[in-house]
Design goal:
The chain is mostly helical. The protein is built from six helices and no strands.
Length: about 190
Amino acid sequence: MTGLNETIFAPSQKLSRAEFTTILYRMAQTESDLRSPFPRCKEGEFYSDAVIWANSIGVQGNMKMEFRSIRHITREQIATLLYRYAQYQKKDISAEGDLEKFPDGGKVSAFAKDAMKWCVGAGLIQGNGLDQTLAPQDKVSRAVGAALILRYMEKIEISQKRIPNIGSLCLIFGLSFSITKILFVLFGKAVSQT
């Protein structure tokens, strides 16, 4: 995950669907030479290849064949994309957390229930700050998105004994150090609001 530019990370800014899809695309270290099925997905945008790739493997998209790239991503949507990405990678998705332990566990949309259970069971989503809610329809900040990606890399990528190539190792350790440093500088301690 990169900043908005060389000097600005914007941790409190909301993360868009396009940005998160691009993060997954870069993590997959792949390229897409397909054409977009989404009429509103413009060619040549920073997210264009990522959206086409994500749709081609079943990670992204919806029934109306719209991508809605500029919309901010919600916690349940990010859980769904991580879950589908783990399926694409043939990771173990058998972990199942108890949504009922959260005061708003019953508010998770039907499309996201399995994904949210997996994210909770795998330790990717741990509750939202002091009130320990899932907040499934809340928008995700860039800082929370970075923390979720870091947890995915640590708990799913590494713990499931996938031997990463050198580029992945640099990404994992560089991302881990950068996120920790950014969060410490901005908030004075690690963020637990995910």
